[in-house]
């Protein structure tokens, strides 16, 4: 009888242990399910927020691009008007002045002619600063070479365009020209550089542009709020490009730009 009671107690303990194990397993499964569901929920929320953030960033980039394009169109309209209308009218007036009979008063004629020449040069300069009117017809490379020639008395600039360069969208070429122009202007104004180099090479997926000088360099954190740096970086962003500044005090500065060909964001690692 005692053995029977003992066996019965053992059986009850075993059943209780089994029931406890079952309860623990069940609770573990339920908790695991809740954790998985919670993680899935959090992951979905994060993913939705990331998608929303990316959509907002893309929207902001589109707004910036549209704004820059609108500005460029307005600049182009004004520049063409100055270049084609006012410039041509001044040229005609200049021709008339050459044929004007001033009854031997060469001093008056010379003064008026000099003023007309100054006005023509000013109109061209204003037009050129607003928008590179002739870039599309002349071509990007030749237009940059013209800029180099015009600045040759201020700084020695050399440009190397690797074989295989392909004509880009006019918007990209205008932005790139403006970047080179802005970089060069900043170097002439704020640096002691004597030499500046421009390197351009086409790759299957993107184009690399490197602009460097041998000047005194700069501290990016101190100058990043300046209009020159802001203008350059704004134009880089408008092309959906990535960039990297490399500047060492007293050893010059360098700007590396990677411009995608198919409007796809290039790999940031390509700048390292």
From TrEMBL:
Domain Histidine kinase/HSP90-like ATPase, residue spans: 173-261
Reactions mediated catalytically: ATP + protein L-histidine = ADP + protein N-phospho-L-histidine
InterPro entries: HATPase_C_sf, HATPase_dom, Sensor_HK_TwoCompSys
One Pfam family it belongs to: HATPase_c
Entry's Gene Ontology molecular function annotations: protein histidine kinase activity
Keyword entries, A-Z: Kinase, Membrane, Transferase, Transmembrane, Transmembrane helix, Two-component regulatory system
EC number of the protein: 2.7.13.3
Annotated transmembrane regions: 17-38
UniProt-listed GO biological process terms: phosphorelay signal transduction system
PANTHER family assigned: NITRATE/NITRITE SENSOR PROTEIN NARX-RELATED, NITRATE_NITRITE SENSOR PROTEIN NARQ
Official protein name in the record: histidine kinase
Organism: Chryseobacterium oleae
């Amino acid at each position: 009888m005692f053995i029977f009671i003992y066996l019965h107690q053992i059986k009850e303990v075993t059943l209780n242990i089994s029931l406890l194990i079952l309860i623990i397993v069940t609770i573990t499964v339920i908790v695991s399910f809740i954790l998985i569901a919670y993680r899935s929920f959090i992951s979905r929320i994060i993913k939705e927020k990331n998608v929303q953030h990316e959509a907002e960033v893309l929207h902001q980039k589109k707004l910036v691009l549209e704004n820059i394009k609108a500005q460029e169109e307005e600049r182009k309209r004004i520049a063409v008007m100055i270049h084609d209308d006012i410039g041509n009218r001044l040229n005609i007036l200049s021709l008339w002045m050459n044929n004007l009979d001033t009854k031997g008063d060469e001093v008056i004629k010379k003064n008026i002619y000099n003023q007309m020449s100054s006005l023509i040069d000013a109109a061209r300069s204003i037009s050129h600063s607003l928008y590179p009117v002739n870039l599309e017809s002349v071509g990007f490379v030749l237009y940059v070479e013209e800029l180099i020639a015009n600045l040759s008395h201020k700084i020695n600039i050399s440009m190397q365009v690797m074989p295989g360069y392909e004509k880009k969208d006019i918007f990209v070429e205008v932005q790139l020209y403006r970047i080179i122009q802005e970089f060069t202007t900043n170097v002439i104004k704020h640096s002691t550089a004597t030499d500046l180099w421009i390197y351009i090479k086409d790759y299957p997926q993107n184009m690399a542009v490197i602009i460097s000088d041998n000047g005194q360099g700069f501290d990016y954190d101190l100058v990043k709020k300046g209009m020159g740096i802001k203008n350059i970086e704004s134009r880089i962003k408008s092309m959906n490009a990535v960039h990297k500044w490399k500047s060492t005090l007293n050893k010059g500065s360098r700007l590396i730009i990677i411009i995608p060909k198919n409007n796809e964001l290039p790999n940031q690692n390509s700048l390292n």
